UniProtKB/TrEMBL annotation:
One of its GO terms (molecular function) is nucleic acid binding. This is DNA-directed DNA polymerase family B exonuclease domain-containing protein. It comes from Rhizophagus clarus.
Length: 270
């Protein structure tokens, strides 16, 4: 869950620590530390709600059907403009019969939906292919992809993805809850931290070439990192790794390293 972060970057105290390569890296907040500091209390709310067995607001990202204890694994196939859904079903049935060996292992359903990618003003026609287990779905997906039929769900990784949701225990959130700025923002964005970095180098070879790691004369002297929430341009933390003693700057966590080796080690450890 993501919530907008409001803070004044100029109010942050400047921080300066040293790293010698022999001890653990300290002075830089962990991922959990940053989340706890900038989630506007959402972590505490979630933990308290779990402790009190209160409703948890969430947005599901994957839903599968479970009817009378039987799970369906769904594959969505887009119906191209030069085919009707009935003609594509005939083609799919032929492919899946060869692949799955039995017509009882799959079923079809016509649906209309907006594509996940791009902007569309009208719903498109899809054929929903249902299989009885993950491996049949995988083989079906692989088979239709091999004949260049476009699919809306294209996960070919081996593995299972399970999130169980009981219909009996599911209650849609109220309009009042959804309009709550805290929950509405949390429901519409993923809580993902983004780390960006910039590595600055120099060369004493004076050739005008771009520094290259294979030359001892080419060095990394500073690495700057910035942490953001996904889709939010405001930085949460700014971290600077340097190999020379320097004065800390406001809003930055500065780690002074003894050498290029220690600087790169600190970057790898973070």
């Amino acid at each position: 869950m993501h919530t907008p972060t409001n803070f004044d970057q100029t109010d942050r105290s400047r921080t300066l620590t040293c790293y010698n390569g022999a001890c653990p890296l300290v002075g830089i907040p962990s991922c959990n530390d940053i989340v706890a500091e900038f989630d506007n209390g959402m972590t505490a709310i979630l933990q308290q709600s779990l402790s009190d067995k209160q409703p948890i607001h969430f947005m599901s990202t994957e839903v599968s059907d479970d009817i009378e204890g039987y799970s369906f694994y769904i594959l969505y196939v887009e119906v191209p403009k030069n085919h009707s859904s009935s003609s594509l079903k005939t083609i799919l049935a032929r492919i899946l019969l060869i692949t799955l060996k039995n017509t009882t292992k799959f079923g079809f359903e016509n649906i209309r939906a907006f594509p996940l990618q791009g902007y569309h003003i009208e719903k498109k026609v899809y054929i929903c292919v249902r299989t009885w287990n993950y491996f049949d779905r995988y083989n079906a997906l692989k088979a239709v992809r091999e004949v260049r039929i476009h699919t809306a769900s294209d996960d070919l990784n081996y593995g299972t993805y399970l999130f169980q949701l009981s219909v009996d225990n599911y209650n849609p959130i109220s309009e009042e809850d959804y309009n709550n700025p805290l929950f509405s923002s949390a429901l519409t964005r993923d809580q993902i931290l983004i780390l960006t970095w910039d590595i600055e180098t120099y060369s004493s070879r004076k050739t005008g070439e771009v520094p290259n790691a294979k030359y001892d004369e080419d060095k990394v002297f500073i690495i700057c990192m910035t942490v953001y929430w996904k889709d939010d341009p405001k930085s949460l933390k700014q971290i600077c790794l340097v190999d020379v003693k320097t004065a800390p700057e406001s809003g930055w966590i500065t780690i002074v390293c003894r050498s290029q080796t220690d600087l790169l080690k600190a970057f790898a450890l973070y």
